[in-house]
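Milestone M4 deliverable, item 7.
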Amino acid sequence: MPTVVSLAAIALALASCTVETRYVPRTPHRLALGMRNREPGFYLDGKFIKLSEADVALAACSPSASADLTQAVIHQGSFQSNNIVGMVFNAVAPLAFVLAGPIYYPPAFGIGLFFGIRADGKRQQSYAEVVDAINRYNDDPRCAP
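Output delivered:
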């Protein structure tokens, strides 16, 4: 039982952590990477634009950056789905151990671990796509004033 309490405390501590960046002045009309509530985004002319709202802001200027952002949004959504499924199975695993017996703990924990690892990979892909989109936007001569 102490293991369950310590795991719950760790999960609560991790869930309460937030990652956020603050704006640092940059060259006008250039993108800079940012984070708000664990969602990647970017700063453009002092305004933070979340990943979910970014495609509209870049579509007119740089189609290649817009395409990268579309992929980043897809990977971010996949990350969120996989993360939720993994967290549910990781929460159910100790309950399965207590209620149904120790034989059900490893499969439930294994499924949660699988989805957690998969979620992490999708998050990394999303971050890479955001960085690629920022680089494409900043390198595109049509986006310069």
